[in-house]
UniProtKB/TrEMBL annotation:
The chain crosses the membrane at residues 7-28, 67-87, 99-120, 299-319, 340-361, 398-418. This is ABC transporter permease. One of its GO terms (cellular component) is plasma membrane. Residues 186-222 are annotated as: Disordered. Keywords: Cell membrane, Membrane, Transmembrane, Transmembrane helix, Transport. Residues 63-417 form the ABC transmembrane type-1 domain. It is found in: Cell membrane. Belongs to the binding-protein-dependent transport system permease family. SUPFAM superfamilies: MalF N-terminal region-like, MetI-like. GO terms for biological process: transmembrane transport. It is a multi-pass membrane protein. InterPro entries: MetI-like (IPR000515), MetI-like_sf (IPR035906), UgpAE/MalFG_permease (IPR050809). The lineage of its organism: Bacteria, Bacillati, Actinomycetota, Actinomycetes, Kitasatosporales.
Length: 427
């Protein structure tokens, strides 16, 4: 090349070099210098800001969470991408499936954070995660319809051990028993509930009624007796207890009436605590113990499609004759996948995993948006702590030290990735 061509090349590269220097080199250099100064920027702090990385509780929590992110998020996202790429290779609608899985990549981190903040809402009527979880739970362990029911004034019932209610006096056959309760709003009564009916006397049996002893309106209704607008506790379980043992039990009908055999004569009636068990409200996804795994789940939802597309591209270049040769030799599909497909895709899997590792070291948006204020300290990561130290707590020296530390963490991973890519080009 002549000197003229070098000058032309330098001229064309100058805008890129200026931008690179202004947007990359200068900020890195400034952050490195600023990390050695105190809060005001006037006094030299030495390594004090770097010591804070290992003594500050918030930064230590962020370090621990970053380790979880680096270990689990890239691994799970790459594994799911591999599974999706392999399973959709032979199906006719594989392209449509890949498009759907890849679509979250078109959504910004901000939008993803807002979506999953709603998905993880504690209220099952709002949060999809808890709606599904509660639905599965209630399939196997149905909650009571009367979680807030309790005896009212002048009630024959009193509180017993474990959240149950027990009659104050033993009951007698042939004498109807009234078991009034209050505390359940009319709109939350079971659909099977009917108008409460007074129990009729039956010889040799203990009969009674359990109902919602409350009528709207001041001075309306008769206390201790079923009124026309009051509903029976349909499905309420009643037990007859003698000397601490259950001798008979039954379930109230839709109108609240029930009947027990002669064995209940002289026993006390008990409404067991299972009648009043609080409704299951799901998991606290954004609580201190689950907030980090929950946010990692949202990241995997977003980036599994990225991993799948890259792995699918690598899978398309795998020689099909090697796969067919393995099948001819008697290998089943699992053996072909484990011993042939995965080893051939190892370079691609390494590149995807390392790329995601670099990405998760810088994760900020999802944690900042999804984690509520009450558990943001528990979900903290280095990038978020950098923001908090630099802006919320006005400690730019420590924030700069965190930025330099993050750079030092990313450099080895980037070096490994670049080295592997160069090796692939040489091949």
């Amino acid at each position: 090349m002549t000197g003229t061509r070098r000058a032309v090349a330098a001229l064309f590269l100058l805008p890129a070099l200026v931008l690179l220097g202004a947007l990359v080199v200068y900020p890195i250099g400034y952050s490195l210098v600023r990390s050695f100064y105190d809060q005001s920027g006037d006094g030299f702090a030495g390594l004090d800001n770097y010591k804070a990385l290992f003594t500050d509780d918030g930064i230590r929590t962020a370090l621990k969470n970053n380790v979880l992110w680096v270990v689990f998020a890239p691994t799970v996202a790459t594994a799911l991408g591999l599974i999706f790429a392999v399973l959709t290779e032979r199906i006719r609608w594989g392209t449509a499936f890949k498009l759907v899985v890849f679509m979250p990549m078109a959504i910004s981190m901000l939008a993803t954070g807002i979506i999953f903040r709603l998905v993880y809402d504690q209220d099952p009527d709002k949060g999809v995660a808890n709606a599904v979880w509660v639905g599965v739970h209630d399939t196997f362990a149905q909650s009571s319809a009367f979680p807030k029911a309790h005896p009212g004034r002048q009630s024959p019932l009193e509180a017993a051990r474990g959240g149950a209610f027990l009659t104050r006096e033993p009951v007698r056959a042939g004498s109807p028993v009234s078991l009034p309760l209050v505390g359940v709003p009319p709109d939350q009564m079971p659909d099977s509930a009917k108008k409460a009916a007074p129990a009729t006397s039956e010889p040799g049996k203990v009969t009674g009624t359990t109902w919602q002893d409350f009528t709207r309106g001041k001075g309306v209704g008769t206390l201790g007796a079923p009124d026309p607008s009051e509903l029976g506790y349909a499905g309420m379980r009643i037990e007859a207890v003698k000397d601490g043992k259950v001798v008979a039990s039954t379930t109230a009908a839709g109108d609240g009436t029930f009947s027990l055999p002669e064995a209940a004569d002289g026993a006390q009636l008990r409404l067991p605590a299972s009648n009043f068990k609080e409704a299951y409200n799901g998991l606290d996804w954004l609580g201190p113990s689950l907030v980090t795994p929950a946010i990692i789940g949202s990241y995997i939802w977003m980036w599994a499609g990225f991993a799948m597309v890259l792995i699918a591209a690598g899978l398309a270049s795998v020689p099909r004759e090697l796969l067919e040769a393995a099948r001819v030799d008697g290998a089943n599909e699992w053996q072909v996948f484990r011993r042939v497909t995965v080893p051939l895709l190892a370079p691609v899997l390494a590149v995807v995993t390392v790329t995601l590792m670099i990405n998760v070291l810088k994760v900020f948006d999802l944690v900042f948006i999804i984690a509520p204020g009450s558990s943001q300290d528990d979900a903290n990561v280095l990038a978020l702590e950098l923001y908090r130290k630099g802006f919320s707590e006005d400690q730019p020296g420590i924030a700069s030290a965190i930025a330099v530390f993050l750079l030092l963490l990313v450099i080895p991973v980037m070096w490994f990735n670049v080295r592997r890519l160069r090796r692939e080009v040489r091949r």
